[in-house]
Amino acid sequence: MSQEKVDRYKKEKANRKKIIKKQRMMNVLRKCVLSLAALALVAWLGYSAYDKYASNQEREVASVNYDAINTYMTSLAE
User: Fold this and answer.
1) What confidence tier does 44 reach under pLDDT thresholds 50, 70, 90?
2) Is the separation of the CB atoms in 66 and 72 below 8 Å?
3) What's the pLDDT tens digit per position in 3-18?
4) Distance between CA atoms of 33 and 41, rounded to whole angstroms?
5) Phi first, then psi: what are they for 61, rounded to 5°?
6) Rounded to whole angstroms, how far apart are CA atoms 10 and 71?
7) Among the residues of the chain, which ranges form H helices?
């Protein structure tokens, strides 16, 4: 049993740089994914808040002046 532990320790020590490098890469990847998820959440919340704010604003009512058309139609009728 002791020899197995010693062999395992030697293998771990021989590959320690690779193991540490792999752990660091996984940590960086994990941080990037979480950052992108947080950024997407913030963007979605901002868009939703702006959409709700914009939908509650009063809209301008357009008015059309039909005087020219009415005079033209009356001139045709005469």
Assistant:
1) very high
2) no
3) 999 988 988 888 899 9
4) 12
5) -95, 125
6) 101
7) 2-14, 16-56, 67-77
